[in-house]
Design a protein that fits this description.
Elements lengths: L1 E4 L5 H6 L10 H6 L4 E4 L9 H9 L6 E5 L9 E2 L18 E2 L4 H14 L1 H5 L3 E7 L8 H14 L3 E5 L8 H13 L2 E7 L19 E6 L4 H4 L5 H5 L6 H5 L2 H10 L2 E6 L4 E2 L2 E2 H15 L6
Length: 299
Amino acid sequence: MRIGTCSFADDALNKHWYPRGLAAKERLAWYAERFSTVEVDSTFYAIPSESVVAGWADRTPAGFVMHIKAFGVMTRHPVRLEQLPPALREGMPLDARGRVDRPRRDQRALVFREFLAALEPLRAAGKLGGILFQLPPYVVPTDSAFEYLDWARDQLGADEMLVEFRHRDWFAEDIRADLFPWLEERRISYVTVDAPRLDARNVPETVVAVTGPIAYVRFHGRNAATWNKRGGGAAARFDYAYAAEELDEWVEPLRELSRASEQAYAFFNNNNQTDGVAQAPAGAELLRRLLTEENVPVG
């Protein structure tokens, strides 16, 4: 079982976890001395340059694994035109707010190609984990959604695909009965989520499962009060410090996930701070201690 955080460059980490005065270019190496894996979320907002990715590979030790969040266009999110590389902007369809939305399949394929090409330094170094597709909450289990995921799986080639569903309909028992075997057939790894115990359409249900070579759990926090707060944003939504008893609930599920998969990962997305302590690494370190005490191997 490998444990890490969602981002190594979040504001809460920079302000409350990294040593004061540590240069920005030295933070990833410092992080990699303490954790053996990380999820990179900045790639949701922009396609990274190959030189930036090469820097990630160079500043991490052998065996370190980086999972990469797919760029917004790849997961059917609208994005600002300037978020696209200049060479891909011409002819992109824009919505009423001036955002790139619903591009043609051939246009989307070019985005996939550039994104995947940028990851080659990690791939060559053996440090590329999975590509995380976090679907927007308005993507529901329709035929077109399944067809898109099938197409996206083909675009990734030999790279591993991870999918996080955000709309509650994906977790209905009749849908899951077909969904999980469908994912298994395509070697797509389902992402298990810990989220608020809130009955809302945009809150994923916590269903523990493995459908591919990678078992993957994301801890979003359980802040029901802020999840759908108007104007709150991601920082407020994921503002949560896990208690030991809450993470203790996960010891046995994580033990089973690690047994049922080729590789198992748990990531903390509660990127905020409480009383000057960064919540994500604190939760990751607490979970690591709990698993170790229960003799669950932790890498």
